[in-house]
Structure to design on (209 residues):
């Protein structure tokens, strides 16, 4: 998923792949897990609104690179992996709320499941509504039921994947390049939905670390 996202100052997504660091993978994994656990435990124990606001807006002001260095190499089904994916999802939405809301709205019309309700976006879903949803999902990581926040994010991804696939079908003849891009996006979102859903189940069984 990482190459699909960029930070506000257009930090190239492919740079995520080139992070080498100065420590061995085991030490990097240990740091990723310890920082994720410490952050989540500290904020959830005393969810000061100002602190939560700063964490939500962190990538808007500082970019994604610090978080990437901490968590981007963590396995998908881990606490740092889950936090990384939630931040990337919010960043994707905020970088192009018009496209994100369009695909989510289309997905809501074609998916035929309760996922639009689980995700919790206002209907109809425009750019303002989709930005609000992204912030609410991330806020839920720190203030509410963590598993619910992950499930909402997973539902958002499934709806958006359905919308991407539907628009890709519509664009296939007239805009094959756009169709291919949207098909790839749908696959990535589906993968992300599965990973976040798995993390939610692990959290409920006290097995996400």
């Amino acid at each position: 998923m990482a190459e699909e996202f960029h930070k506000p100052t257009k930090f190239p997504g492919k740079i995520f792949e080139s992070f080498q660091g100065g420590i061995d993978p085991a030490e990097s994994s240990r740091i990723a897990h310890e920082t994720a656990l410490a952050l989540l435990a500290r904020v959830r124990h005393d969810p000061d609104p100002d602190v939560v606001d700063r964490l939500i807006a962190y990538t808007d002001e500082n970019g994604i690179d610090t978080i990437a260095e901490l968590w981007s190499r963590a396995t998908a089904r881990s606490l740092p992996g889950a936090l990384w994916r939630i931040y990337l999802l919010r960043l994707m939405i905020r970088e192009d709320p018009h496209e994100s809301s369009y695909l989510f709205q289309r997905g809501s019309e074609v998916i035929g499941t309760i996922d639009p309700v689980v995700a919790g976006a206002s209907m109809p879903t425009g750019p303002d509504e989709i930005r609000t949803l992204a912030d609410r999902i991330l806020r839920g990581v720190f203030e509410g039921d963590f598993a619910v926040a992950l499930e909402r994010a997973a539902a958002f991804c499934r709806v958006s994947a359905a919308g991407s696939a539907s628009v890709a079908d519509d664009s296939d003849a007239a805009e094959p390049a756009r169709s291919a891009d949207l098909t790839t996006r749908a696959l990535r979102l589906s993968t992300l939905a599965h990973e976040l859903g798995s993390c939610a189940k692990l959290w409920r069984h006290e097995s996400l670390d």
